[in-house]
Predict the structure.
Amino acid sequence: ITNALEAHLTETNLKNSLVTNVSHELRTPLAAMQVLVETLEDERTKSEEQNKEYVKLLNVEIARLNRLVENFLSYSRMESGNISYKKEAIELEELVEEAVLAMGCRLEKANCNLRVSMEEDLPQLMGDKAALVISLVNLLDNALKYGGESNDISVSVKTVEGDLHLAVADEGPGVPPEDAKRIFERFYRCNDRATSVSGSGLGLAIVHHVVKGHGGTIAVDEPPGAKFT
């Protein structure tokens, strides 16, 4: 009974932490959007170029908000068991292009140097395109958050012994060995990261669920990065 109670309390604390973190993350882009809209509405910008810059920043925050909402909805479907993946033939080039496009404004704002390497004549992948794009967006978002000052991110897609391998790598400090096996758990956040970078602790858990639902595997690689087949 004691163990069951402790597990229940831990789960409750984790969910309370999730609500707190998600509420904070939702307020941040909303506050930024409000300031930008009010500035544009009051015509307090000084030039057409500044207008365009503010619109670009609005797009960044809108994309960020959409990603947060999508992750929260994906988590809700995972918890209820109502999530299913519609399989169709996917071109890997299109999957990567859509994910990069979805992250476009944010990558540009961070002056990210993104390198994409794709093997020629890649086979099609049978999977749920929307879910896989969201997964890759979460990996790119994670790399951008923890990639260090260089903001160098690479995406590579290739075949290894008949399996498709997609890897996202950054130049950050990597994941401590004691955390490597747990970072794909829902709500889990590395201790050294939880206070320095905001997050809900859902992104990598969603990626893990999607990859597993497609019969693939995901792991932290060395050098740091995320990979699924």
